[in-house]
Backbone:
């Protein structure tokens, strides 16, 4: 299969595949934005799960197609259905696989057999990432970022891709129902998103609650809690009731409206998670807290200041690329040794610096 081989001319109908997760989709935006800016004659079709629709639809001229991986497009038969559905939409002449998992491999090979020979696949740098997280002879070096890897994939198809993307929008006007809920902005708005997919990336909740308590004690702050449904929503609503100047928006708004709210924040406090990438798309500075994972793996927020990352040095850090491995030490010292006051001080520093720009 012709993959990642530089071609002399670019194709006019490109299929881009990135089926999950939402944070990874957010990191594709700088690359796709650059592609459509530099090649307005190219029709880009982006296939992903439904949660990505609001984000991808912010890019003019990009057609979003939903892959229902829990329904019609589930399993190998589902991938065949997805292939058939996509062929009915357009006759693509190039494909960029920005995921490189079993589903996307099957899909791209089906397109190859159907006649598409221009196929590029992301190089995830799996070998160098393993060297970064191994316990012995760890190679603690900055790896190429994921957005850069997306860009390289598109460049290999002949497209001109630059890194000029700054943000989708900034300080978006909020719909009236949100303004009624949150009030007008007459204070410092501080977003706190305390959750992540894996334990190795989550700052202990009792410590994060202390951060909320300290910040909520100042009348100049409004704390906006961001999270998902179920247990996350319950925890955040408990904090909302417990502390003044604190509002939970968990499961209250669509992704696009959450993005609009995030664009109005003075700072976003979050883990190595999707919310870091959401904030990066709307020009909001981030205070990110890192435990088992590390910015060196390439998942730091787009154009975020790395000095705003809160982390400590340990011989075993990082021990995981995704934060899903059990703690080698059994105590998650990488997270437990970070004091709430350290995070609060970083928040104040970032807000003061950003407001002076």
Residues:
């Amino acid at each position: 299969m012709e993959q990642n081989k530089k071609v002399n001319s670019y194709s006019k109908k490109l299929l881009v595949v990135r089926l999950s997760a939402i944070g990874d989709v957010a990191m594709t935006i700088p690359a796709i934005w650059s592609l459509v800016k530099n090649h307005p004659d190219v029709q880009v079709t982006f296939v992903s799960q439904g949660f990505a629709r609001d984000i991808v639809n912010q890019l003019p001229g990009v057609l979003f197609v939903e892959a229902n991986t829990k329904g019609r497009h589930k399993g190998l038969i589902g991938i065949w259905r997805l292939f058939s559905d996509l062929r009915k939409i357009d006759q693509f002449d190039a494909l960029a696989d920005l995921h490189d998992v079993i589903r996307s491999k099957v899909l791209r090979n089906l397109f190859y057999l159907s006649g598409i020979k221009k196929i590029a696949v992301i190089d995830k740098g799996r070998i160098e990432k393993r060297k970064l997280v191994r316990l012995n002879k760890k190679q603690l070096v900055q790896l190429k970022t994921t957005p850069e890897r997306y860009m390289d994939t598109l460049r290999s198809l002949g497209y001109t891709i630059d890194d000029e993307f700054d943000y989708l929008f900034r300080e978006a006007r909020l719909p009236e129902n949100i303004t009624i809920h949150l009030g007008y902005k007459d204070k410092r708005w501080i977003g706190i998103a305390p959750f992540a997919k894996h334990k190795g990336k989550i700052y202990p909740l009792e410590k994060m609650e202390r951060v909320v308590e300290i910040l909520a004690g100042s009348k100049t702050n409004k704390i906006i809690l961001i999270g998902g449904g179920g247990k996350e929503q319950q925890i955040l609503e408990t904090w909302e009731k417990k502390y003044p100047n604190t509002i939970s928006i968990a499961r209250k708004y669509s992704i696009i409206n959450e993005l609009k709210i995030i664009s109005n924040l003075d700072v976003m406090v979050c883990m190595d998670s999707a919310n870091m990438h959401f904030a990066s798309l709307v020009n909001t500075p981030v205070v990110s807290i890192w435990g088992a994972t590390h910015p060196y793996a390439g998942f730091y927020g787009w154009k975020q200041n790395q000095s705003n990352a809160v982390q400590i040095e340990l011989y075993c850090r990082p021990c995981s690329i995704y934060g899903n491995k059990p703690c080698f030490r059994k105590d998650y010292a990488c997270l437990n040794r970070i004091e709430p006051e350290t995070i609060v001080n970083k928040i104040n520093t970032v807000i003061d610096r950003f407001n002076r720009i």
About this structure: The first strand starts at residue 13 and ends at 17. The domain at 13-155 is CATH 3.40.50.2000 (Rossmann fold).
